[in-house]
Amino acid sequence: MDVAPLDMLGMLDKHWVQIAQLPEHLVSKALNIEYCFINETGESRHPMTGGRVSIAIKSVDDNQHSIETCPPLDILLIGGPAPSYRPSEPIQRFIQKQYEHLRALLTVCTGYIPALYSGILDGKTATAPRGLLPMLKEEKPDVKWVEKRWVRDGKVWSSGAVANGMELMAGFMWEEFEEQRGLTEVMMGMADFAKRGQAY
């Protein structure tokens, strides 16, 4: 479920919009989106679960990559691993290197962990699952932890619990793709998505 927000973003893809038989003025605003699935070795076909690191968005020929073969990305979404997960040094270096040129880094639920240990969240405002916030505020004071469903600080977007990832993605789509706002609104309606805002 941590990477379910990709389904929502995928609703802006030209192929999906054409299948939905929407008017041409909306089809013309659609994006060309391809997914790049990433883990440390590139071997698993299911890298999004079980503590493996991430899923990302970029136009690529082969959508399965290791952290060594992954091309530069536009958007990196990190789904939530187990709370005890700690990223390896190669994964930390991968996130740091990608972050330099990313349009956006999104973390869902405990997906904050790889970003945190990579140093990306230092000095930034972020959120995480509500039950973990007291501990994080005490143990990781270099981050301004806030109790919200999702929050943005520059190009870093973070969500609270796993279900808040959908709200995070809705906010991301609305703010980052201004030319597609009409299309986004139509697709949100088709998905029966109800906006709840950032505050709990």
Summarize the structure.
With 200 residues, this protein is α/β, with parallel strands linked by helices. The protein has helices at residues 5-10, 14-19, 24-27, 89-99, 112-117, 133-139, 164-176, 181-190; strands spanning 35-39, 54-57, 64-66, 75-78, 104-107, 125-126, 144-145, 150-153, 156-159.
How are the secondary structure elements laid out?
Blueprint: H1 5-10, H2 14-19, H3 24-27, E1 35-39, E2 54-57, E3 64-66, E4 75-78, H4 89-99, E5 104-107, H5 112-117, E6 125-126, H6 133-139, E7 144-145, E8 150-153, E9 156-159, H7 164-176, H8 181-190
Parallel strand pairs: 1-3, 4-5, 5-9, 6-7
Antiparallel strand pairs: 1-2, 2-4, 8-9
Describe this structure in words.
It is a single chain. The chain starts with a helix and ends in a 10-residue tail after the last helix. The chain contains eight helices and nine strands. A hairpin with a 2-residue loop joins strand 8 and strand 9. It has 200 residues and is of the alpha/beta class. It has a seven-stranded mixed sheet. It has a two-stranded parallel ribbon with strand order 6-7. About 5% of the residues have low confidence.
